[in-house]
Amino acid sequence: MLAAVLHGAHDLRIEAREDRMLLPGEVRVRVRAGGICGSDLSYFNKGSVGDFKIREPLTLGHEVAGDVVAVAAGDGFAAPAIGTRVAINPSRPCLHCGFCRAGRENLCRRMRFLGSAALMPHIQGAFSETVVVRADQCVPVPADMPYRLAACAEPLAVALHGVRRAGRVLGANVLVAGAGPIGLLCLAAALHAGAGSVTVTDLFDGPLAIARRMGASQAVNVRDDAGGLEHLAGAAGGFDVALEATGSTASIVAMPALMRPGGRIVQLGMLPPGATPLPVNLLMAREIDLVGSFRFHEEFGIAVAALANGRIDVSPILSATFPLAEANAAFALASDRAQGAIKVHLEIG
Ligand code: ZN
User: Fold this and answer.
1) Same domain, yes or no, for 130 and 179?
2) CA of 91 to the centre of ligand 1 (A)
3) CA 315/CA 148 separation, integer angstroms
4) Inside any domain, residue 77
5) How confident is the model over 100-127, as pLDDT tens digits?
6) Distance from the CA of 41 to the center of ligand 1, in angstroms?
7) Cα(191)–Cα(172) distance, integer angstroms
8) CA 201 from centre of chain
9) How far, in Å, is the centroid of ligand 1 from the Cα of 131?
10) CATH number of the CATH domain containing 139
């Protein structure tokens, strides 16, 4: 099978990889579409994401959907029938540890997440013609759902988990920093959860126009209008909830001053490695919570349901689709934020 394999920064090759045998309880999926994630882009551009560095060739990709083509019964999971169209949950937690049993599978220390260099050997990803996953990683989608829409279940689950970590969002004055795919999906997820208003920031006008189209009350270009956000926050008495989806140090450092006392900041973006200096006295004196949000678990099924019943419309973020053979062009477009691309997909099968 052909796969998009990263050998180092800017060295992405389409090459043949071994297809492995199924173990009991596993499923082979013919991958049809895959979305390029910010972490795929970070691996591609820098050879690393956060603290995870590529140390051996890595097939990228973890936002994928396709069709079940083979099933090995066993392991207690109800396997989907051959031919079922599925969104693949890239999380494969151990299911046995304390975190898994407490319903916090995303914190599992033995997590095997598709397309990740967190472990050695790396967990190979799913930008490949077929991929083997555990049966419970396959979530059936309607037979007429476009594959690239189904592939959006993964980033939408990230956003839904972030909103869950925010606590009370109903009626809240929400700030979303960053209008990339995760930021825009956080906007959609916050509105879905009943946010009173959502302000979105970015450095580029193109993504901000999409944020407005998706229901943002305000969209602020923080590069052109540096004081605009402080002014908005001041007029409203501060934000109740902030979802940080840029991974930029400047963004998180500025955030505590924008919050209402008692507010909550959720860090979704992955910051550069190492320590980040923060105005902790502001967090202390205003009792502002700062919490992390990492991946998702049960939100994956919630995301599939919201896409299937149309309660969350992600179509505004779909930018372009390239065949697998043109993966380098797809990564180049997805890396160029000034061009306005949000979510770029590979069409694989
Ligand atoms: Zn576990």
Assistant:
1) no
2) 11
3) 10
4) yes
5) 999 999 999 999 999 999 999 999 999 9
6) 27
7) 10
8) 18
9) 22
10) 3.90.180.10
Report residue 50's pLDDT band, with 50, 70 and 90 as the boundaries.
Answer: confident
Q: Does residue 307 belong to any structural domain of this protein?
A: no
How many Å lie between the centroid of ligand 1 and the Cα of residue 297? 12
Cα 104 to ligand 1 centre (Å): 8
List C-alpha distances in Å: 301 to 140, 154, 203, 243, 248. 9, 9, 32, 22, 29
Looking at the whole model, is its pTM more than 0.90?
yes
State the pLDDT at residue 178.
98
Average model confidence (pLDDT) across the chain:
96
The domain that contains 233 carries what CATH number?
3.40.50.720
6 Cα to the center of ligand 1, angstroms: 28
Q: Could you list the residue range(s) of the whole structural domain that residue 163 is in?
A: 159-292
Widest distance between CA atoms in the chain: 60
Cα of 151 from ligand 1 centre, angstroms: 24
Give the helix/strand (H/E) hosting 275.
Answer: none
Of 83, 78, 77, nearest to 29 by C-alpha is 83
Q: What is the pLDDT of residue 349?
A: 80
pLDDT at residue 143, as a whole number: 97
Q: Report how far ligand 1's centroid is from the alpha carbon of 103 (Å).
A: 10
Residues 145 and 180 in one domain: no
Same domain, 250 and 338: no
93 vs 77, 98, 131, 145, 167, CA distance in Å?
A: 14, 11, 17, 27, 24
Give residue 243 CA to ligand 1 midpoint distance, Å.
27
**How many angstroms separate the alpha carbon of residue 123 from the centre of ligand 1?**
16
How many distinct structural domains can be found in the chain?
2
Long-range CB contact pairs, 120-125, < 8 A, 24+: 120/55, 120/56, 121/56, 122/54, 122/55, 122/56, 122/58, 124/3, 124/17, 124/58, 124/59, 125/40, 125/58, 125/59, 125/60, 125/61, 125/62, 125/90
26-35/343-347 β-pairing: antiparallel
pLDDT of residue 214: 98
pLDDT digits (tens, 9 = 90+) for 277-318: 999 999 999 999 999 999 999 999 999 999 999 999 999 999
